[in-house]
Design a protein that fits this description.
Blueprint lengths: L1 H25 L8 H26 L1 H14 L4 H19 L3 H12 L8 H9 L2 H9 L4 H23 L5 H7 L4 H9 L1 H18 L5
Length: 217
């Protein structure tokens, strides 16, 4: 018990220290935040949160680590800006794949065969993107880190499933139902409110890729 208490005391001190660094050192002067700066700091704090998740996995085991990751994803908020960057990353990946030689494309597909896993964790997805130079460059060109790309992908998947179930069970308490599925109710609301725009953007991308011949193989 005493070990747990000291851990949480240390945890509280770390949080206070990080807040102090953020407010009193890194951002002590008021200025206009650029898109690049915002993206860098987003990647930094997302990495800090997931690094703590890795510590939970190592210290408390798989069950506690999975619960932490699920909670992290529940609180992760989707937005149209993030979705647009995610689509841009997909577009970049398909265009870069189109320009690859048959031999390079075959080699990449062979590498990816061993990585495809329906039970892949967030860290697995990040490693897969970072270990493939073409994909990593495509994602970064869209303004996302590999981790942010994986977070958006997993959040969209969870949110889509939760939204589908919520539609089928309209009489249930929607908030409780969605949270039981480890999804963020605000993300489900975002998805449903922007369903037409999201569908249109996806179809526009598919049409563009088909026109450019980037939807083959």
């Amino acid at each position: 018990m005493s070990g747990d208490i000291w851990f949480w005391v240390l945890f509280g001190c770390v949080i206070v220290g990080l807040l102090a660094l953020d407010l009193l050192v890194f951002h002590r002067r008021a200025h206009v935040v650029t898109v690049r700066e915002a993206a860098v700091w987003t990647a930094v704090w997302v990495s800090v949160g997931l690094a703590f998740g890795a510590l939970v996995f190592a210290w408390r085991g798989v069950t506690a680590g999975t619960e932490y990751l699920a909670g992290y994803l529940i609180e992760y908020s989707l937005s149209m800006d993030k979705f647009d960057k995610y689509l841009a990353a997909q577009r970049n990946i398909m265009l870069k794949a189109k320009d690859m030689s048959p031999a390079d494309k075959q080699a990449m597909e062979a590498r990816n065969e061993g990585r495809n896993n329906a039970n892949a964790s967030l860290d697995d997805m990040v490693r897969n993107v970072e270990s493939e130079p073409m994909m990593n460059a495509a994602v970064r060109d869209a303004g996302l880190s590999a981790r942010e790309f994986a977070l958006v992908a997993m959040s969209l998947m969870q949110t889509g499933m939760a939204a589908g179930v919520a539609k089928m069970r309209p009489k249930d308490n929607q908030d409780s139902l969605i949270r039981a599925m480890k999804a963020n109710p605000a993300n489900v609301k975002f998805l449903l409110e922007n369903e037409a725009a999201i569908t249109r953007k996806q179809k526009d991308l598919e049409a563009e890729m088909k026109r450019l011949g980037a939807d083959e193989g």
